[in-house]
Every structure is written in structure tokens, then in C-alpha cells.
């Protein structure tokens, strides 16, 4: 819930507010120098009233004076997303980047929302797009993008230098003329620009094959050729060859699948020729980035010689079906520059698909040139496949997986006795492990075996692990104490820890933990003396000097057995914190708590906490009682 007492737009005197609004409307006439000449307190009050472009213009000189525009950018975010939206951005650069990221895509593609409608006069301008393009790091490619080859071409030149990652959010039909523009923009960002990360949000294997080819993988196999030729192959080949001949070069799709470079100099075509060719009904398709670049370059502006080829070091496929996985598996064995790989499927991956992926990863890892260290995959059908992936990629330093066990169908994963395997397995460079599990029973021995083999381990996140009846997660804490002295972050979620207090205390006695989170772990469920157990836990936590983040959310530690912070409890905490102020400002996440049950106490508590804490708050509606009921069942 937003504290209206802290909202300058709600509290400002009428005349002051009118003046601020006048400055916003007539900023060009007033001039930035006049604004910068105002007293510092007045400038701080003015910031939330300024437009995005005005904030962007004033930020550098204000920063030189030691003033931050953070409140202005946060004000824009709250205006865009509503007062109940959590704006968890500690610095002005983070808040500014989020504003520009959200608005650039909306304005560039002509999308709209209430905020854009209210501010369209300030946003639908070349100056805003230019200012936003200087801030954003990610470009989301959808259609149409023809403007980047026409009136917005200078913007494309700027995006080349600024964009680090490119997202494809819409399927691209290579049989359409508009597709040529999209491929050209991708070529400029990936090959001429600084972008090294690709995020594919749609299932489009042929475009994935085009993106991967030449930008990492050194091998062009029959599968890629089949995909590149799968749609209108003969038409595209003939048209591309004809286009290449007209342009002065003989390469098109064939050259895209052959050598990467050609020494021929090609005269760039004018756009008018392309348009007239399209109007006459003649096909003019090409998938060759070299030809695309010459085709769309303005007359006299074509690059000298051949175009460079980019390198993709981070690949994220959000809808990874079997066809996309087949394309990836063909490219992986020689994808030496790939550093991070993320694969997500809305359906659980089949065992056979995961085993084929593991085979490709194994081939990649066998090369000393392999750079892959970060792997994320979801959703796996069983946790034993995690072991298969680790064996296939023994150089991984970070692994994130989600597991959802199917209740039917035979398992095809070969079973290997763990005792034999553990004797043969050497140490792993693994530093981060994140496993989310949805299955009836989980093999804890697998996790502890990995931890024992990972002396450099620093971060562990486990969620949803269910052990057989009579088993305890205490062994997990024992292994962490004995084998992982460099552990910095531990996050356990939706697990039963009520019988693990001795092992937890033992871990805390000698550790370097900086972040500890036990979320929904029924921590005190079986404690005979809840108060004594909490006192022992608090004493152990206070003795860890490196600890700066602690979360014990949804463990029902209070006497009323509630998962929520009540207004009266928060007010009491605020009073104690005021009596014993922390050495450093705390960050309190108070989202999803019933503050509206006693808004006066809740508001009073927030007011007392603000001098000592960064508060993350979000509106709560107590009329939705089902959430409360389910949480306290």
C-alpha cells in the first residue's frame, strides 16, 4: 500500500503544484539553466513533475552538483504502473533504465497504454526515442521494423552501439518481403553491433537456424540446410541468386551455407529498385546477411568489403520445442563461444530429447575451446537427468533446472549405481546450483554428492524437495558444513526443516553466509519450545558477521500462527527499531501483508520505519479472504 503522506503530488500546496506543472508544460521556454538555478529543496520537489525527456536532460548537471534524479524516475514508474506496483530500484540508473525499457518498445512500435495516451505529446518524438535508445540494453524485435531502414535509420546506427541483447518475440515468415527487413536489422545488431545475447520467445526453428549459423557454430550440417531450405526453397534460391547477380555478387542462400566471406566488391542497390521489383511481382528473397546489408544500405553507404560476423555468447530459448532443440543440438558441438544457455519448454522435455541434448553438450565440452559455464533448463521429467547433464558438461559453474515428474510412461534414463559413479567422478567447478522440484520423492543423495564434489560452491537454491518418510534434510546442512566453506547464499523453499534445527545451528557456527532464506519451510512446526528454539536461532544468526540478508517468510513463527505481518506487529517492530537503530539502512519487503485491516497503524508504522529502511510495499485487498484462509490452513 502506498503511503500518500510521502507522495509529493498529493501533499504539495496548490500554488506550488501549479508552478511545477507550468514548468513541465513550458520547460523549453523556461530553460534548463533557470531550473538548475532553483534552490536544491525546490528542485527535489519538482523532479516528480517533469517529463522523461526533461529528467534525462537535467540528470547530468544535477549529478555534477551531487543531486540524484531517482525520485523523478520512481515517480514516472508509479505513474505508469500504478501506486501498488513495487518499484524495487535502488539507484537512479536502475530506475531510469526500467522507464526507458518499458516506454521505448511501446512508443517505437506504436503500442499504447493509459500513461502513453496521457503523455503522447512528450513521447511520440524523435528526441524521446533517441534518449531512450541511449539507455536501453535490450531490443525486442517484432514487426514492422521498416522505419529503421528509412526515416529512423540514424536510430539503428545508435542501437548498434548500445544494444547488448536482442529478443525475437514474433514468428518470422521468411517468404515475406517484410522479413528481409527484420533479418537485416538482426544482422546489423548481431554482426555490426555489440549484441551478444539472443532471446527467442517463439518457436521458429528456421529463424533460429539462421541466427546461429556463422555466429558461433563452425559446422553447417544437413539439418540446418534442410531448415534453411524448408520454406519455398527453390523460389528463395533462384530469387536470391538473381538479386545477387543484379547487385554484382553471385552469392545468396548458397553462400550463406558455404564459406563465410567473399572478396567481391558489390555496388549497393537503391531502395527504389527493390520497391519496384516487389511491385512488379518479382521475387526478391535472400537469407545471406552480406546481400541483405548491401540491399538495404542507402546508396553510397554500403560497407566496404565483407560484413563482419558477430559472436553469440548467451542464448535463451523460451519456447524450446523438439524442432528448435534439433537445430540447437546440431550447432552445439562447435558452438565454442557460447557461455550461457537457457532452454525453457512449456511442456516437459522428453527423456530422449534431453539425452540428445546431453550428447551434444558432451561433444562441446570435449573441446578445450568450449566456453559454456552456465546452463539453465526447464522442465525436466526426472531429477536423474540433472546428473546426466552435469556429466555431459563437467565445466559448468552455474546450473539451474526445474523438474516435474511425469506420473506415467517408462523411464528411459539409464540407471548407474551411485557408489561406482562417485568413485570415478572428480571435483566439479560448480559454484551455483538452483533446483526446483515437483515430484513425490527426491533423491537427496544426488544433491549431497554434487555438493561434496564442488569445493568452490557459493550459492544453493532448492525448492519443493520431498524426502521419503523417515528421512531428514539434516544431512544437507551437514554436507554444507563439511564440504562447502565458501557458501555465501542459501535459499531453501517449500521444504520441511522442522527437524533440522541442530544441523542449522551447526552450519551457522562457522560459515561465511551473506544471504539466508528459509521460505515456507515449516521451520518451527515440530519444536517443543517455540520460544527457546527461536532464541537459539536468533543468537546463532547474530553471530554471523557476514550475514546481510535474512528471510524467514511463511514459517508461522508468530504466536497467532499466521504467515502475515499484522499492522499492530509492524508498529511494535518499528518502535523497537527506533530504540535500537541498525548501523546500515535495512531493506524490508512488506509485500502481500494485510495493511488495510488497520490502515492507521500500518501508515504510522511505515512512517516510523522510513528513516531506517527501504520499504517494498504493495497494495493488499482484505476482501480477497481466500488467500488468507489457504495460507493459514
Automatic annotation (TrEMBL):
InterPro entries: Leu_rpt_41, LRR_dom_sf. Residues 241-263 are annotated as: Disordered. Keywords: Leucine-rich repeat, Phosphoprotein, Repeat, Ubl conjugation pathway. This is Leucine-rich repeat-containing protein 41. It comes from Liparis tanakae (Tanaka's snailfish). The gene is LRRC41.
Amino acid at each position: 500500500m502506498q503511503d500518500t503522506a510521502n507522495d509529493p503530488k498529493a501533499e504539495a500546496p496548490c500554488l506550488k503544484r501549479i508552478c511545477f506543472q507550468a514548468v513541465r508544460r513550458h520547460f523549453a521556454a523556461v530553460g534548463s539553466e533557470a531550473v538548475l538555478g532553483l534552490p536544491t529543496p525546490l528542485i527535489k520537489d519538482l523532479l516528480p513533475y517533469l517529463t522523461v525527456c526533461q529528467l534525462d536532460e537535467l540528470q547530468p548537471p544535477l549529478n555534477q552538483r551531487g543531486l540524484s534524479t531517482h525520485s523523478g524516475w520512481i515517480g514516472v514508474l508509479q505513474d505508469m504502473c500504478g501506486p501498488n506496483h513495487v518499484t524495487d530500484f535502488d539507484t537512479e540508473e536502475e530506475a531510469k533504465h526500467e522507464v526507458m525499457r518499458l516506454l521505448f518498445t511501446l512508443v517505437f512500435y506504436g503500442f499504447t497504454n493509459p500513461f502513453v495516451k496521457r503523455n503522447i505529446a512528450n513521447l511520440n518524438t524523435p528526441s524521446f526515442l533517441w534518449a531512450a535508445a541511449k539507455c536501453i540494453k535490450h531490443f525486442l524485435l517484432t514487426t514492422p521494423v521498416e522505419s529503421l531502414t528509412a526515416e529512423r535509420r540514424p536510430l539503428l546506427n545508435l542501437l548498434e552501439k548500445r544494444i547488448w541483447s536482442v529478443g525475437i518475440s514474433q514468428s518470422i515468415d521468411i517468404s515475406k518481403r517484410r522479413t528481409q527487413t527484420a533479418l537485416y536489422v538482426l544482422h546489423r545488431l548481431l554482426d555490426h553491433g555489440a549484441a551478444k545475447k539472443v532471446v527467442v520467445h517463439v518457436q521458429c526453428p528456421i529463424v533460429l537456424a539462421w541466427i546461429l549459423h556463422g555466429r558461433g557454430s563452425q559446422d553447417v550440417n544437413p539439418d540446418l540446410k534442410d531448415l534453411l531450405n524448408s520454406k519455398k526453397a527453390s523460389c528463395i534460391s533462384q530469387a536470391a541468386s538473381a538479386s545477387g547477380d543484379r547487385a554484382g555478387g553471385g552469392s545468396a542462400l548458397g553462400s550463406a551455407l558455404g564459406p563465410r566471406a567473399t572478396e567481391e566488391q558489390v555496388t549497393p542497390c537503391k531502395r527504389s529498385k527493390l520497391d519496384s521489383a516487389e511491385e512488379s511481382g518479382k521475387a526478391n528473397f535472400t537469407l545471406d546477411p552480406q546481400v541483405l546489408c548491401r540491399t538495404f544500405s542507402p546508396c553510397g553507404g554500403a560497407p566496404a568489403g565483407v560484413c563482419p560476423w558477430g559472436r553469440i555468447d548467451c542464448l535463451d530459448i523460451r519456447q524450446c520445442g523438439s524442432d528448435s532443440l534439433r537445430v540447437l543440438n546440431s550447432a552445439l558441438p562447435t558452438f565454442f563461444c557460447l557461455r550461457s544457455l537457457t532452454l525453457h519448454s512449456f511442456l516437459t522435455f522428453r527423456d530422449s530429447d534431453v539425452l540428445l541434448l546431453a550428447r551434444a553438450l558432451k561433444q562441446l565440452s570435449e573441446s578445450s575451446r568450449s566456453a559454456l559455464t552456465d546452463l539453465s533448463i526447464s522442465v525436466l521429467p526426472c531429477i536423474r537427468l540433472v546428473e546426466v547433464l552435469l556429466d555431459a558438461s563437467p565445466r559448468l559453474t552455474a546450473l539451474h533446472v526445474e523438474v516435474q515428474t511425469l506420473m506415467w510412461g517408462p523411464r528411459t534414463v539409464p540407471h548407474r549405481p551411485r557408489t561406482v559413479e562417485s568413485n570415478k567422478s572428480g571435483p566439479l567447478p560448480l559454484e551455483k546450483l538452483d533446483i526446483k522440484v515437483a515430484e513425490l520423492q527426491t533423491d537427496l543423495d544426488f544433491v549431497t554428492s554434487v555438493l561434496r564434489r564442488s569445493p568452490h560452491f557459493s550459492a544453493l537454491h532448492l525448492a519443493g524437495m520431498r524426502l521419503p518418510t523417515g528421512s531428514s534434510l539434516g544431512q544437507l546442512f551437514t554436507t554444507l558444513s563439511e564440504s562447502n566453506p565458501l557458501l555465501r547464499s542459501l535459499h531453501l523453499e517449500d521444504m520441511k526443516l522442522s527437524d533440522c534445527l541442530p544441523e542449522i545451528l551447526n552450519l551457522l557456527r562457522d560459515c561465511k553466509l551473506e544471504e539466508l532464506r528459509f521460505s515456507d519451510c515449516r521451520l518451527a512446526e515440530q519444536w517443543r519450545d517455540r520460544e527457546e528454539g527461536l532464541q537459539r536461532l536468533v543468537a546463532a544468526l547474530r553471530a554471523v558477521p557476514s550475514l546481510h540478508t535474512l528471510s524467514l517468510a511463511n514459517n508461522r513463527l508468530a504466536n497467532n500462527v499466521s504467515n502475515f505481518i499484522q499492522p499492530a506487529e509492524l508498529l511494535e517492530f518499528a518502535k523497537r527499531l527506533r530504540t535500537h537503530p541498525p548501523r546500515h539502512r535495512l531493506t524490508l519487503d512488506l509485500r502481500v501483508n494485510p495493511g488495510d485491516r488497520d490502515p492507521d497503524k500500518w501508515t504510522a508504522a511505515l512512517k516510523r520505519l522510513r528513516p531506517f529502511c527501504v520499504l517494498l510495499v504493495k497494495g493488499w485487498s482484505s476482501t480477497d479472504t481466500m488467500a488468507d484462509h489457504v495460507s493459514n490452513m
